[in-house]
Structure formats: C-alpha cells, structure tokens
Amino acid sequence: MNRIIAFAVLFLFLFFAGGSKACTSAIITGKLTPDGRPLLWKHRDTSELNNRIEHFKGSVYNFIALVNSPDRGGIVWSGTNSAGFSIINTASYNLKDDDVEEMDKEGELMYGALSVCKNLLDFEAFLNRLPRPMRVETNVGVIDAEGGAAYYEINNTEWTKLDVNDPKVAPHGFLVVTNFSYTGRIDEGMGYIRYHNAQKIIGDRLSVSGRGITPQWIFNALSRSFYHSLLGIDLKADLGKASRSGWFIDQDFIPRYSSSASVVIQGVRPDETPELTVMWTVLGYPPLGIAVPLFEKSGSGLPSFMTKTRLSENSGLCDRVLDQKGKVFAIRRGSGLKYFNASRLFNESGTGCMQLLAGCEEHIFSAFEKRMAGWRRTGVSLAELDGFYADIYPKIESAYSSLPE
Questions:
Q1: CATH H-level, domain 19-401: superfamily
Q2: What is the pTM assigned to this prediction?
Q3: Across all residues in the chain, what is the average pLDDT?
Q4: Element (H or E) spanning 52, and its range?
Q5: Closest residue by Cα to residue 303 from 287, 321, 317
Q6: Which residue from 391, 367, 396, 385 is spatially nearest to 302, judged by alpha carbons?
Q7: Which residues are 154's β-sheet partners?
C-alpha cells in the first residue's frame, strides 16, 4: 500500500511539474501598442493538447472561446464576447488557504462571465454573486471595450484586483502573470522562470520601441521564444547550437510539450465598436502553429479549420500542428518526451519548420491589416471576412504540405 501511495504522489508531482495547468500570460495596455489598443495574451499549457474554437449563445452576450477537444460543455479557456469583454486565466498555486476539494472550476467561471459581463464592473459584480466556495485558485485577466484592463487573483472566498492601468500596479504599462499570484504566499507557486523570461523579452522590446507590442510580435517573440532566463541562453538566436546533436531539454521555456494554444485578444479603443475586437488564435503547439484572426460577429460562420466538423471533434488545423509536433518530440521511450528536436524547428540553413511557416503567417497578418483598415471605418463585413478565410486556407495547407518529412 505504501508503494502505491508513493507512486501516486510521484505521478501527481510529475503531472503538475510537467505543466498540466501552467500558462504564461500578459496584459499590455494601449500605452505600449502602436495603435493604442490593449492586448490580452494567454499561452496555454494543459494536459489536453487538442484545442479548438467554438461560438456560444450566452444569456446576455454571445461569445467565441477556446475549448478542449472534445468539449464537455460550459467550460472555456479564453474568449471574447459581443460587448468586447475578453477574458483569460492562469492557474495559481499560492492563493488557496483552505482544504476545499473539487476545485478547478476556472473554465466554468470564464464561461459564465463571458455570458453576462460587459465590463470590469460587471465582472466584479459577477464574482461577488458566485456562491462560496468558488472552487478556483486562479489569476484571471480581463480587458473590456471601455478601456478597462486588470488581473483578478481569486481563491475560494475572495478576490483581489490588480489594475494594469494603474501606474502603481503596472508602472511600465504591462503585467506578466504565470502560475503564482502577486498577493499570494511569497516564493510559493510555479512559473517563476517563465515569468522572468517574458519580463526580460518585453522589457528589451520596450527599450528599443516604446510602443512596439503587437499581436504578431507577441506570437514570434513570446509564444515561440526559446529564451531561458536562468540558463542565460536563447536557442532560437543561436539556431539550436546550444546542443551539438540539435536536441535540448524541454524545461521552463515559454513553449513546452504541454503548450496547446496561444491567444492574443486585441481590444478596441473606447471610441470604437466592440465588434472590432480580434481574437488572434494559434492552435496546437505554438512554435508550429499559424495565427488566425477571429471575430465573435462570425457566429456559426467561424472558419471550419478552427472548429469541429461533422467528422471530428477536433480542429483540422490543430490536427495538422500536432502531427508536426510529434516529429519535434519524436522520442517516445523512456524519458524521451522531455527532449525536443530544436534543429527541426530552426537551423542555420533556414529549413526549420518554424522558419518555413513564417512566410504564411506574415501573409495572413499583412492581408488582414489591409482589410481591417476598411472595417474600422465601416464595420466588419462577414462576406469579406469569409473571402479572407477562403484566401488563407489554401496557403495554410500549402505551408504544412511543404514541411520536411
């Protein structure tokens, strides 16, 4: 019996240490973006690696959200609604101060909030109405269409607001949050190295360009970063040469084996319609994914390659990404999945999969911005948006078909 208990404890340790609920996130205020629009970023790490996008009809507001595939219903992991209210979370491991069981209700909390909240005040009232214990230990990031931007550190009985627009809270105009809470127990929790990774990368960017944070930059510089602040290395900058074999240990980079998606929600300025809120989404393993812009206004007309189909609960694009991910984490025996083939992602000859996919995503961002410039004057045209998706899908398929075996 003692051996069984010891094995169970070891399993749980490895499960959580491997990042089953360990995300990296940030709120970037409009002070740091070229167009003054705030950004809400979540790099998701989870045990469910196949994710997709779904549209939901809420009791007050409709919304689009990232969900697990297959989906159990009533649970989401980031999203934005028709009022421009957007939400993400990261698990916290230093807030809980009780012995309440049956936790992990963060997905239900976010689903409920997207359904009824228009702004931060609505969200705070929503939290106050929830029955106690709330059965969460989490950091929830929120932006709204009125200029609000805040993290909420929430446990079973109470919540604390960190207003990212407040210079006393976020003196540099942004806040990075991983898997510990600022108001939680000191030196407990997880994700400290990833926190320092993101802090350093964003800080370096701002020292060069004070308003240079964009969704495209976040995906490339953060979600696909292989900078490690503790080791003082950057595999991507060194093109994987930190290891002669091209392999490296998968530990404490922002993207890891457990990474299943990355979302950057680009909010609106207070004088703009909330329908212009864009949920940029990379499904699957972010270093091998391609960002696609999504709108709540699409309703059931979301691009089919991002949602489930009649034949599968999975997103077709996510399946494509996971197929390539299997070739990066190709060692199955022993502790092989703790190592990744960095040279397959990037190398000196420019034939790494990340390098080969970059052109497709660059086209998507460029083509989208041209259309978005018009939509910001006239509103989002669903016909034009459908045409945009029809244009990029063959390019996405071609990009993955061109990758090496």
A1: Penicillin V Acylase; Chain A (3.60.60.10)
A2: 0.95
A3: 94
A4: strand 51-56
A5: 317
A6: 385
A7: 138, 159
